[in-house]
């Protein structure tokens, strides 16, 4: 393992998690653990299989991940975060917050998985009417859909799945969907760019990060 060889906590942390792909492996496990090796590859487009294997070995040696054998009839090796690995959630969230403005510079055609929305949406969205019955929004961005659901205490939870009886559905490009839910674009403007929204606009207003004036 390469080292900065510095008596500095930041440098020591980067010795362990600073290599390419390491923190994205953590992201995948935060979202979907325990994961099979094939699950991780699917969620890390562009990674070479030998590099993923190397990173997992390094992360296991550093106490970030652990392996377990799934119960029969699956009988395959699963990877999950250790408590030490789970503690990197704050790092991933802060890094995502810092990088959010850079999304506007992402080139067209960049890889995307809809479930990646879970980390920022659960961090920033709030049920503004928590005393009312829960609502569900189905989000579609091209691959498997996810459900944005209100929960107890004003929280918002995101999980994979579809719901024929969802209170609203949003379908569009990852950029438009994300910007709409984060309150960075009005619904009317997003629709002009091709986004489809079905349901009462009040359902959207209920969970948006920032209220917008025109969601009609």
Tell me about this structure.
By secondary structure, the protein is an alpha+beta fold. Helices cover 38% and strands 15% of the residues. The protein has helices at 9-17, 22-32, 37-43, 49-61, 83-86, 89-99, 118-124, 174-181, 187-192, 201-207, and strands spanning 65-69, 77-81, 136-140, 146-150, 156-160, 168-171, 196-199. It has a 5-stranded mixed beta sheet. Strand 4 (146-150) and strand 5 form a beta hairpin. The longest helix has 13 residues, at 49-61. It is globular and about 55 Å long.
Are there runs of 5+ residues with pLDDT below 50, and where?
Answer: 211-216
Secondary structure: helix percent: 25-40%
What is the rounded distance between the termini? 55 Å
Please tell me the total number of domains: 2
Structure, briefly:
This protein has ten helices and seven strands. With 216 residues, it is of the alpha+beta class.
Topology (elements, then pairings):
Blueprint: H1 9-17, H2 22-32, H3 37-43, H4 49-61, E1 65-69, E2 77-81, H5 83-86, H6 89-99, H7 118-124, E3 136-140, E4 146-150, E5 156-160, E6 168-171, H8 174-181, H9 187-192, E7 196-199, H10 201-207
Parallel strand pairs: 3-6
Antiparallel strand pairs: 1-2, 3-4, 4-5, 6-7
């Amino acid at each position: 393992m390469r080292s900065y060889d510095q008596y500095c906590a930041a440098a020591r942390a980067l010795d362990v998690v600073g290599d390419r792909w390491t923190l994205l492996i953590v992201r995948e496990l935060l979202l979907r653990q325990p994961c099979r090796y094939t699950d991780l590859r699917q969620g890390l487009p562009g990674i070479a299989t030998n590099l993923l294997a190397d990173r997992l070995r390094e992360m296991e040696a550093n106490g970030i991940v652990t392996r377990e054998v799934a119960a029969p009839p699956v009988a395959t090796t699963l990877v999950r975060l250790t408590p030490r690995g789970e503690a990197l959630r704050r790092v991933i969230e802060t890094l995502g917050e810092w990088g959010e403005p850079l999304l506007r510079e992402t080139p067209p055609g960049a890889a995307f998985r809809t479930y990646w929305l879970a980390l920022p949406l659960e961090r920033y969205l709030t049920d503004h009417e928590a005393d009312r019955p829960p609502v569900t929004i189905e989000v579609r961005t091209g691959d498997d859909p996810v459900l944005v659901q209100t929960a107890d205490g004003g929280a918002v939870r995101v999980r994979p799945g579809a719901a024929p009886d969802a209170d609203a559905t949003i379908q569009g490009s990852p950029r438009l969907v994300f910007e709409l839910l984060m309150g960075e674009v009005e619904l009317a403007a997003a629709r002009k760019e091709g986004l489809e929204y079905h349901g009462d606009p009040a359902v959207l207003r209920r969970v948006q990060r920032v209220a917008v004036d025109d969601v009609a």
